[in-house]
Amino acid sequence: MTVASNKPRKPEPCCFVIFGVTGDLTHRLVIPALYNLAESDLLPEQFCIVGIVRKQMSEDDLRQSLMEGLNKHATRPVKQEVVQKVLRCLTCLEADPSDPASFDTLSKAFEKLETEKGTCGNRLFYLAVPPAAFAPITEQLGRVGLLREQHGAWRRLVVEKPFGTDLASAKTLNSKLLKIADEHQIYRIDHYLGKETVQNILVLRFANGMFEPIWNRNHIDHIQITVEEKLAVGHRGSFYDVTGALRDMVPNHLFQLLSLVTMEPPRRFEAHAVRSEKADVLAAIQTQSPEEALRNSVRGQYRAGKSGDVEIGDYRKTPDVKPDTTTETYVALKLTIDNWRWAGVPFYLRTGKALGLKRTEVAIKFKQAPFAMFRSTPVDRLSQNYLVIGIEPAEGITLQFNTKIPGPTISIDGVEMKFRYKDYFNAAPSTGYETLIYDCMIGDNILFQRADGVEAGWQAVQPFLDAWKKAGADGLVSYKAGSEGPVEANELLARDGRHWRKLT
């Protein structure tokens, strides 16, 4: 994440190594992002892509497969000269962590390849694989010395979320990775942080004198973070039924948004300072007792319904989902942060599948102004004052405030001032991965989670996981696919005299 106004610098020569090169993630996001970087002239001059396969595959077959994926998932018109620039530097190599000897062969192949390509020994290992493969692959890379930094060359390891499935597994994974690589070498990627509006949160907060002084408990009533999806679980039943909405979304996507909105100002805009403040505020989330966790959460499963024109079946009838499953497809939480800035301010988080809208936003609700001066007028209410940071489907910022309705009498209504990125900036369509991959190549880890931040996030959600496991089906509610979610989620706010912001 650069802050300069001029064109970003080109990365140093490097070898971009993809484990899981034949998988969905590579085809949908990684290769289209590399294409977009190439079109923007932001790939190194000396650059090669190494696709790691478990079974022998020709380079021509791999190129064809990646080309088909690019044509299907590209966010921009595909130019053949750019495609060739990306794919002609592709090499296909075999390696399987269950066959340690294959990594010995891989190590020797890199020595030859890096000499031929002039990449100076700089290596970026992208693990686009299931989480269970993170540690075995890393262990083999470490055993043969492929992650060892020497002779001025850098070595970096990129892992996708989820980073563990609970606090214990997150600690175990971090421990295994940190035995082999230093923290500065590990890039825990969360694609939400590649979105422009998410990156803009720090600028909005700390570069504007109108917002920074009021960003605290004295002026903010509460904050809502919403990540809603229209899509159902689909063909991911086996994965989702052992994961659920909380594990899948809260410790990563929602907590990344939460930490950016609530962190203290870093001493300076650099990775260590920013990541330290993010980790500190996540560690300050108040740990809840089992009783509090049940009271301050709602978990639901969707039943058959219709989202737009799409018919959605009952979650429990999804292939590879247990008929009596208690896995949640929707979760709403109430959290508090135990520090000076946010004492007494509730944070309401919600996310779910098979809902009526696809929407991601952060809504900051300011405290109401005193009504006293309007008591002798026809005004009987004041509109809510919200600052809304929209992330999907449209990236932008909206400010809701009160104004007088034209006419001879005093009448007040709520209005909006809207900023949309697409209206002000002519940015090329992207996958959201371009910034993140570019930052990996230049060694800027400001947008990536650190081990302590990951563990702090799991520490905050562990009480909910434990309480739900003990409760079983007790407390699990249902909601109709295509709806706003379970009605019980409204009660989470209603008992505090609040309500969810209406999504439109």
Work out the number of β strands: 17
Report low-confidence residues grouped into runs of 5 or more. Answer: none
**Which CATH first-tier class of the largest domain would you pick?**
Alpha Beta
Strand content: 15-25%
Quote the CATH topology of the largest domain: Dihydrodipicolinate Reductase, domain 2
The geometry reads as globular
Q: Mean pLDDT score, rounded?
A: 91
Any idea how many domains? 2
Secondary structural class: alpha/beta
CATH architecture name of the largest domain? 2-Layer Sandwich
Assembly state here? single chain
Largest sheet: 9 strands, mixed
Task: Going across the biggest sheet, name each strand in turn.
Answer: 16-15-14-13-7-12-11-8-17
The CATH fourth-level homologous superfamily of the largest domain: Dihydrodipicolinate Reductase, domain 2
Fraction of residues in H or I helices: 25-40%
